[in-house]
Amino acid sequence: MRHIVALSGGKDSTAMLLRMIELKMPIDEIRFFDTGWEFPQMYEHIEKLQRYIKREIQIIKPKIPFDKLLQKYGFPQIRGRWCTGRKINAINKSITPEDYLYIGYTYDEVKRMNRKVNKRGKEIYPLIEWKWTEEQCLQYCYAKGFDWGGLYEIFHRVSCWCCPFQPKRELYALYKYFPELWERLKEMQKIAKNSFRPDKTVFDLEEEFKRKRQLLLFTKEL
Q1: Which of 21, 217, 176 has the alpha carbon at shortest distance from 102?
Q2: CA distances from 219 to 120, 179, 212, 215, 216 (A)
Q3: Beta strand pairing call for 29-33 and 122-124
Q4: What DSSP assignment string belongs to the chain?
Q5: What are φ and ψ of residue 75, in 5° steps?
Q6: N or C: which end of the chain has fewer CB within 10 A?
Q7: How many CA atoms lie within 13 A of 133 on its CB side?
Q8: Are the CB atoms for 1 and 99 separated by under 8 Å?
Q9: Across the strands, what pairs with 77?
Q10: Residue 218 — pLDDT band, cuts 50, 70, 90?
Q11: How far apart are CA 209 and CA 203, in angstroms?
């Protein structure tokens, strides 16, 4: 029997891990899946977290890099989220029916308990048991000195920066504040066999965002 923490690196799973350690709950493994599409600040956060807890965080990488899978499958779609499936399978690897997998669903996300991540072991949701909300998790992490380089001041979620399912306002923030990542997203669009969103390519979004910035600048000048 093992107690395994599924760490996404975001505020919720980080808060769960820190609080579990604080409460001296049993932890045998901490698993983080590196898609290769994380924000640079996320990698810094994982290193900082590992130093803070003085424990090894197991970094799991996909067998085939996601950039290559992008060429094969294109951008993930609602009915074809190939990225999510591979992430879940990697985290669940070698889990037995006797193992416990700790998942960072918050009290705001009780309904997500119906969607079982792990088909073999037992799933535990400490944040829901503690009735911790997303905001409580964020403030708890801030109090512990973890701020993700300010990412949560810009984005609501800080998972894959190139996720096509994120709100348009967050894509605009990526375009505005992370031009290097936006340029990389344009290169990804060139090799993908489908558009970034069902109705828009990355280049379509860029034109839309350019018009938005020009309008905002014009409004400020008035």
Answers
A1: 21
A2: 56, 23, 11, 6, 5
A3: unpaired
A4: --EEEEE-SSHHHHHHHHHHHHTT---SEEEEE--S-S-HHHHHHHHHHHHHHTS--EEE--SS-HHHHHHHH-S-BTTB-HHHHHHHHHHHTT--TT-EEE----GGGGGGGGS-S-SSSEEE-HHHHHT--HHHHHHHHHHTT--GGGGGGT-S--S-TT-TTS-HHHHHHHHHH-HHHHHHHHHHHHH-SS-SBTTB-HHHHHHHHHHHHHHHHHHHH-
A5: -65, 145
A6: C
A7: 4
A8: yes
A9: 80
A10: low
A11: 10
Cβ–Cβ under 8 Å, residues 177 and 154: yes
Q: What is the pTM of this model?
A: 0.90
Q: Which two tokens stand for residue 12?
A: 């919720």
Distances (CA, A) of 181 to 58, 99, 221: 26, 38, 29
**Which residues have CB under 8 Å from 61's CB, separation 6+?**
33, 34, 36
How far apart (Å, rounded) are the C-alpha atoms in residues 213 and 211? 5
The single-letter code of the amino acid at 131 is: K
pLDDT tens track for 10-60: 999 999 999 999 999 999 999 999 999 999 999 999 999 999 999 999 999
DSSP, residue by residue, 18-74: HHHHHTT---SEEEEE--S-S-HHHHHHHHHHHHHHTS--EEE--SS-HHHHHHHH-
pLDDT tens per residue, range 88-114 = 888 888 888 899 999 999 999 877 766
